Amino acid sequence: MPKSKVRKKAAYTPPPVSRVPQKVAGPTHPAYIAVMVAMWVLGLAWLVVNYLAGPSIPFMAALGNANFIIGFSLIVVGLLMTMRWR
């Protein structure tokens, strides 16, 4: 039986190291963190006020179930902001 050819693998060569310095982002500005936390608190406050006094506040009563969309969207925006927080 004929002997099969042995393939030679090339030796592993690591990719070349880039000598260009990479710009590293610094910490998040304190105002960004304040806005992020304010979104959470504002969304939570919107939902609490809707539950406790929603029918007695004219514009909230007119919004109806849209109050839940507003409250939860404020909370979600705050949570999405955490992805950019350093």
Automatic annotation (TrEMBL):
Instruction: Kindly list the residue ranges recorded as spanning the membrane.
Output: 31-53, 59-81
Family stated for the protein in its record:
Belongs to the CrgA family.
Q: Provide ranges: composition bias, Basic residues.
A: 1-10
Question: Which organism does this record belong to?
Answer: Pseudonocardia parietis
Please identify the protein, giving its name as recorded.
Cell division protein CrgA
Name the major location.
membrane
Superkingdom classification of source: Bacteria
* Job description of the protein: Involved in cell division.
Q: Where is this region: Disordered?
A: 1-24
**Alphabetized UniProt keyword annotations:** Cell cycle, Cell division, Cell membrane, Membrane, Transmembrane, Transmembrane helix
User: Where in or outside the cell?
Assistant: Cell membrane
Looking up InterPro entries in the UniProt record yields:
CrgA
Provide an example Pfam family for this protein: CrgA
Question: Which membrane topology describes this protein?
Answer: Multi-pass membrane protein
